[in-house]
Amino acid sequence: MRKSKPKKRYFLPDPIFKDTLVTQFVNNLMHDGKKSVSYSIFYDSLKIVEEKTKEKGLDVWKKALNNVMPSVEVKSRRIGGANFQVPIEVRPSRKITLSQKWLIQFARNRNEKSMVDRLANEIIAASKGEGGAVKKKDDTHRMAEANKAFSHFRF
């Protein structure tokens, strides 16, 4: 058990949009410490999103994140020798983290040529309520709904 909770780390705002959420997303997108590559992938994909949707890229991205954010998830609890999937509410900070990671994960699994195209198309799909990341959220909610009977094991 930990002696104390670790301090919450805060992100510096990104250079173009002055938004800390963008920095957090870019940090999740980053591979092998190549942050500038990650920034260029993100900004280029937002330009593609703007061209395709004729809306502001940042607004479409934020809408996509909101569509992917889960409100409940299941956590495995061992009670009396049996494992139960117990539905629990998701903390606000975890909602953001999960939505970003799912968006990136399903963008990486797409079949387009470059990561810029993959991310742009996943953002567009998620903002419309489609795509792999939104499906993941729906599956998570469905799982929590199915295991609602075990919600009294939550503590």
Can you lay out the helices and strands and say which pair or pack?
Layout: H1 20-29, H2 35-53, H3 57-68, E1 72-79, E2 82-89, H4 92-108, H5 115-127, H6 131-146
Helix pairs in contact: 1-4, 2-3, 2-5, 3-4, 3-5, 4-5, 4-6
Explain how this protein is built.
The structure is a single chain. By secondary structure, this protein is mainly alpha-helical. It has a domain at 40-74 and 92-138: Ribosomal protein S7/S5 (Ribosomal Protein S7, Orthogonal Bundle), CATH 1.10.455. The chain is built from 6 helices and 2 strands, in the order H-H-H-E-E-H-H-H. The chain has helices spanning 20-29, 35-53, 57-68, 92-108, 115-127, 131-146, and strands at residues 72-79, 82-89. A two-stranded antiparallel sheet has the order 1-2. Strand 1 and strand 2 form a beta hairpin. The two termini are 17 Å apart.
Quick synopsis:
This protein is mainly alpha-helical.
Highlighted features:
155 residues, mainly alpha, Ribosomal Protein S7, 6 helices, 2 strands
Any idea what the CATH architecture of the domain at 40-74 and 92-138 is? Orthogonal Bundle
The CATH homologous superfamily of the domain at 40-74 and 92-138 corresponds to Ribosomal protein S7/S5
Give the CA-CA distance, first to last residue. 17 Å
Helix share bin: 55-70%
**Poorly predicted ranges:** none
Q: Determine the number of helices (DSSP H or I, runs of at least 4 residues).
A: 6
- CATH T-level fold name of the domain at 40-74 and 92-138: Ribosomal Protein S7
Backbone structural class = mainly alpha
Biggest sheet record: 2 strands, antiparallel
Percent strand:
5-15%
- The SSE order reads HHHEEHHH
What is the average of the pLDDT values? 91
What is the name of the CATH class of the domain at 40-74 and 92-138?
Answer: Mainly Alpha
Q: Count of DSSP E strands?
A: 2
Indicate the radius of gyration in whole angstroms: 18 Å
